Sequence to fold (186 residues):
Amino acid sequence: MKLLFGNKKDDLLLRLKKHDPAAQKIFYDQNVKKYLSISRSYINDLYQAEDCVIKAFCKIFKSIESFRSEGSFYGWARRIVVNECLNFIKSNKTVFYLDDISESYLEEIHEEEIIFDFNAQELLDQLPDAYRMVFNLYVFEDYSHQEIADTLQISTAVSKTQLFRAKEKMRKIYFQQQKALKNEHI
Fold:
């Protein structure tokens, strides 16, 4: 769809702040797939992920006046989507965080070279909620372990442990999938 207000993102933002339905539709059309992808990285069920995206769009449109133009509007909106997903998980599921593992053990592990021939969403879907939340916040949202700890109300050590375990679980799942693929081709 062609922008009705010119090519400037600022024009669209101004129209959004005036609650212009045409601007809201444009913003929605431009971002719904991206936001659904973000939501799906946190929530396994497609319908629940869609509900979170819809709620996030409503919050974005409703609270757009609170955006102070101090940072990226799209970053602000993305954070609303992520927070909506986290709120959904917190309110609808029980998330258990496992005990800490020693820092020295984490430092001894070296990343292996992995050939990335897989569906990331399938890997994420197989992670427990606690692992997936920490992994997504750290990898996709670029949160520090302290920010994750503050957001999820856990310790930084638990955040590091969850990230480590998420990576390990994804690695195991990946190698199992690769092994199964090799066996199919034999």
Confidence is low (pLDDT under 50) at residues 1-7, 100-116. Residues 156-184 form the longest helix (29 residues).
